[in-house]
Amino acid sequence: MTHDDVTPAGRPEPAALLAAGRAHLGLELGSTRIKAALVDDAGAVLASGSHAWENQLIDDSWTYSLADVRTGIQDCYADLAREVRTRHGVELTQLASLGISAMMHGYLPFAADGTPLAEFRTWRNTYTTEAAAELSEALGVNIPLRWSIAHLLHALRRGEEHVREIAQLTTLAGYVHRELTGRSVLGVGDASGMFPIAASGDRFDADLLERFAALDGVAEMPWSLPEVLPEVLLAGQDAGTLTAEGAALLDPTGALRPGAIAAPPEGDAGTGMVATHAIAPRTGNVSAGTSAFAMVVLEGPLSGPREEIDMVTTPAGDPVAMIHTNNCTGELDAWVGVFGRFAELLGRPLGAEELYGLLLGAGAEGEADAGGVLSYNYLSGEHQTAVPSGRPLLVREQGARLTLENLFRAQLHGAFGALAVGIEALLHDEGVQLDVMYAHGGIFRTAGVAQQVLADALGTPVAVGESAGEGGAWGMALLAAFAAHRAGTAHPAADGHAAPRQDHAAALGRFLAEQVFAAEALHTLAPQEAGAAGHARWLAAYRAALPVERLAGELLE
Q1: Which of 100, 261, 333, 531 could serve as 265's disulfide partner, Cβ 3.0–4.6 Å?
Q2: On the CB side of 91, how many CA atoms lie within 13 Å of its CA?
Q3: Are 323 and 308 in contact (CB under 8 A)?
Q4: How many helices (H) and strands (E) does the chain have?
Q5: How many CA atoms lie within 13 Å of 447's alpha carbon, on the beta-carbon side?
Q6: Structural domain spans, the chain
């Protein structure tokens, strides 16, 4: 490498690095967009790409077609490749590593020849209530409605013919990874949303697998669950390489060559933890988008199973309490759209950044309890608050003060309302200790507004970093870079066996701390007494009026 190929900070020039095939790709299939991020060894973004898509309600099931999955990742990759050419003047032909992430959980069953046996059933479907309850009782752990095992038992109990033919069961990330590498594997974080993980943090729980096998009707199947579930891997373990067929799928132009190291595929919760550097005990992160979830890395076990709390893991296998909500910013976005249209009618159209900045800024000036204005952002059902079928609802107390400021304060509270209910169970009822909550997602781009509301709602400091807007694709790219780093680094495995899980966790922590986040500036806001008290009043009214929201779901189409 010549001196001209090196930046003043000692990093290779992007064009030289890209031409040498040393960049790392993260691809994440989210609920409304497929996003790609291309980074160097330290996580600096070299290029990005995206593709918009939407789920469909077909036969009472929320789904995305697998044809749309394939065309979507191709379009997203093509968008990224165009940016590489435009920004750096080189053709993207080789990657050092890549990783796939996607919406967690759901149901994707396949026959022995790889044929899909049912439509992809996403996390958004809530018809697995009875199956999840049966599993929670039989296994002695909380099994959420969206977990793969709940979907499997639901299909079995309904007598769906395809269940007998299942040879593989995986998640969306696992499916795309298999198409690109030929390997049926899954990162432990995503796997923990299929079936409970053992206390060792590196495999499915063998005792609970036996309990599942003993359920009525399961023994009659021509398969056993361990046979159809993917192999569980920790961050940095060997998950295969990009095959020639995979390269052709990702880039039908033929420019991309095979051979890139593949990271274990992960769920969007795991990539959110990595993107916010929240993988150590007593840290947590909130990811806010179409849905929202909070992840808190635990120091020890909880008192027992709770319906509000999912037990999952970090990508390195450490135990995590997850508070998941089906709804977050959708209703707020709709109200912003209404005022955006009003601005157009006034002859002064506003860009999205300015529009959100003005309206969220107004919300920051609202009364701490939103003046008695309540917002339910339930575009779909919400299990945290026992709402089976959601209807967005704006309702006011009799003496409420409806102002623009209070309207958007209520929208901000509403975006995190169900999340606050779940977090209360974790931090207050369970007494879990949390030093800081890291936040990421588009709602935090307006500096300090949603961040302060969330800090007041959770009663804990909330930190937003410079990388908070990068999102899950960037987090997956970091895991891909870590996989390449581990592949080229000597670590304890001299006897031919995988290194202990704790070694992987420590190595991932060092990699993120030393190579990615060492120089990142964090902006942290602590809860404010008046804001926290106002939110508590608002949340009490929100809880009290939940029967109105449930009734709206019963009466309105």
Answers
A1: 100
A2: 7
A3: yes
A4: 19, 21
A5: 5
A6: 277-466+527-557
| pLDDT of 499 strictly over 70 | no
**Of the ranges 167-176, 231-240, 379-388, 400-409, which one carries the lowest mean pLDDT score?**
379-388
Classify 107 as helix, strand or coil: strand
Q: According to DSSP H, which parts of 387-493 are helical?
A: 404-415, 417-424, 449-458, 472-487
Q: Token pair of 313, please?
A: 């893991």
Per-residue confidence (pLDDT) for residue 522, from 0 to 100: 86
**Tally of residues, the chain:** 557
Residue 451 phi/psi, 5-degree rounding, is -60, -45
**Long-range CB contacts (within 8 A, 24+) of 519-522:** 520/277, 520/465, 520/466, 520/467, 521/465, 521/466, 522/463, 522/464, 522/465
Q: Binning pLDDT at 50, 70 and 90, where does residue 269 land?
A: confident
Alpha carbons 251 and 458: distance in angstroms, whole number: 44
Residue 5 is predicted with a pLDDT of 37
Q: How far is CA 300 from CA 187, 293, 321, 507, 551, in A?
A: 22, 20, 10, 21, 39
Q: Are strands 97-102 and 168-170 parallel, antiparallel or unpaired?
A: unpaired
Q: Which phi and psi (to 5°) does residue 455 adopt?
A: -60, -40
277-466+527-557 is classed CATH 3.30.70.560: no
Nearest partner of 420 among 450, 390, 400, judged by Cα: 450
For the segment 27-37, the average pLDDT, to the nearest whole number, is: 94
Lowest mean pLDDT among 87-96, 119-128, 238-247, 464-473: 464-473
* Contact predicate 146/171, CB 8 Å: no
CB burial class (10 A; 0-12, 13-18, 19+) of residue 493? exposed
What angle in degrees, to the nearest 10, is found between the helix axes of 404-415 and 352-364? 100
Model pLDDT, residue 10: 57
The 10 Å Cβ neighbour count of residue 117 is: 20
Residue of higher predicted confidence among 207 and 465: 207
- The residue-averaged pLDDT of 146-154 equals 96
Secondary structure element (H or E) that encloses residue 37, with its range: strand 33-39
Residue 464, beta-bridge partner list: 523
Question: Quick one: which of 392, 515, 386, 535 has its CA closest to 450?
Answer: 535
Cα–Cα distance, 462 to 455 (Å, whole number) = 5
The CA distance from 455 to 461, in Å, is 6
- Residue 258 and residue 181 in contact, taking contact as beta carbons nearer than 8 Å: no
Residues 6+ apart with CB under 8 A from 189: 266, 267, 269, 270, 273, 312, 313, 314, 315, 320
Please state, as a whole number, how many other Cβ atoms lie within 10 Å of the Cβ of residue 448.
15
Beta strands in 219-367 (DSSP E): 231-233, 261-262, 266-267, 283-288, 292-297, 310-313, 319-325
Residue 425 is given by DSSP the state I
Amino acid 8: pLDDT: 41
